[in-house]
Write a sequence for this structure.
């Protein structure tokens, strides 16, 4: 699946996304989170127009100081949204914050340094996330989303579990949606990895305090101990069909790549895969039998340009993940603005040279010698297919 564009990290109204920064460096985080939660609770405000408002006002706290007349000057914000903002009570978020604290649920706003870096880059990233578990898992450097059929056959479940165990043992974090079938096998495989060095992250289509079956509750406890469970829905909100496309965009946006194991032509997994392609992430698909239609969706993705995955090694090779995981290189001081923009664009992302040239406002002939110099310094790594990513310190 050919990627032609990457999300621009400069568009996010957030501070540095460095995962090494301590949360103690954000002394006003409680106030910021309350302001973002108040925005989320406002009818008619979603991720896209919410970010537009915050960007236009110079910050989320500044937004709440603007008058309706001032807000009307912002292009793209309608009268209904402005009226809803004017009616929002200042203490709209206090009860929810108290509830989450009592339930052991963390609230991560876009400006929280614990917010997942890759997810923050997409234009429709949630303004607020609710999390339970090991929040350090959200900054794991190598993450793969794994999706597929709920009614997967035994072969598909076994393959997924074995592959995810193998990948997790090599430091690859596994993201999925905690549904039956392929999702459950993906999480189970990640938890099977002996050393526990790589986390697994479950993204739900309901709130973290929603009623769960005993089996689901055990899954949540196991995943929380070794990784993290995430949702953009308020804690007691129950699952509804319209929630799952929203959840799918988080699964696609959280990882550098999405692997589709078993999916028919109408599968929701194809929605996740196409979102991943739209976000400029890699899409991989596992082929299968042409009988029965269980793999028709994967075959369609392969026809559309997805990377063929016949083994875990294919995934590692395609993503440049061979060897032990390291941390992105940040020891190189950019020599000029072009190097700075290249390093910013490739931090946590993989980009084709054409997309990178467009992002940096350079022609490919202008960009190529700069990339070569950075490659020789170990600042960038070259992947198959003229793709680049930020080099890593192993």
């Amino acid at each position: 699946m050919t990627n032609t564009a990457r999300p621009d990290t400069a568009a996010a109204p957030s501070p540095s996304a460095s995962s090494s920064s301590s949360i103690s460096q954000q002394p006003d985080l409680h106030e910021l989170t309350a302001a973002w939660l108040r925005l989320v609770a406002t009818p008619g405000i979603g991720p896209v127009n919410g970010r537009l408002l915050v960007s236009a006002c110079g910050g989320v706290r500044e937004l709440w100081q603007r008058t309706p007349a001032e807000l009307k000057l912002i292009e793209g914000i309608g009268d209904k949204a402005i009226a809803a903002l004017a009616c929002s009570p200042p203490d709209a978020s206090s009860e929810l914050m108290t509830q989450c604290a009592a339930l052991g649920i963390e609230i991560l706003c876009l400006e929280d340094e614990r917010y997942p870096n890759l997810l923050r880059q997409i234009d429709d990233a949630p303004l607020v996330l609710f999390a339970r578990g090991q929040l350090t898992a959200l900054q794991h450097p190598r993450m793969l989303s794994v999706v597929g059929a709920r009614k997967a056959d035994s072969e598909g479940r076994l393959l997924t579990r074995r592959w995810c165990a193998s990948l997790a043992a090599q430091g690859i974090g596994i993201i999925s949606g905690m549904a039956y079938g392929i999702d459950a096998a993906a999480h189970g495989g990640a938890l099977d990895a002996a050393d526990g060095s790589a986390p697994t992250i479950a993204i739900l289509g309901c709130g973290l305090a929603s009623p769960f079956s005993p089996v689901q509750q055990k899954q949540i406890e196991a995943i929380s101990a070794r990784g993290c469970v995430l949702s953009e829905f308020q804690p007691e909100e129950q699952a509804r069909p319209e929630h799952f496309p929203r959840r799918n965009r988080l699964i696609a946006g959280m990882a550098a790549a999405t692997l589709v194991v078993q999916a028919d032509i109408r599968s929701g997994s194809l929605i996740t895969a196409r979102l991943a392609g739209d976000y400029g992430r890699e899409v991989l698909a596992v082929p299968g039998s042409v009988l029965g239609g269980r793999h028709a969706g994967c075959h369609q993705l392969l026809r559309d340009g997805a990377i063929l995955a016949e083994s875990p090694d294919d995934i590692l090779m395609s993503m440049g993940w061979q060897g032990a995981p390291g941390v992105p290189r940040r020891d190189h001081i950019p020599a000029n603005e072009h190097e700075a923009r290249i390093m910013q664009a490739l931090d946590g992302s993989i980009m084709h040279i054409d997309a990178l040239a467009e992002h940096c406002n350079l022609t490919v002939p202008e960009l190529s010698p700069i990339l070569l110099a950075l490659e020789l310094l170990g600042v960038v790594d070259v992947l198959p297919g003229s793709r680049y990513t930020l080099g890593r310190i192993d």
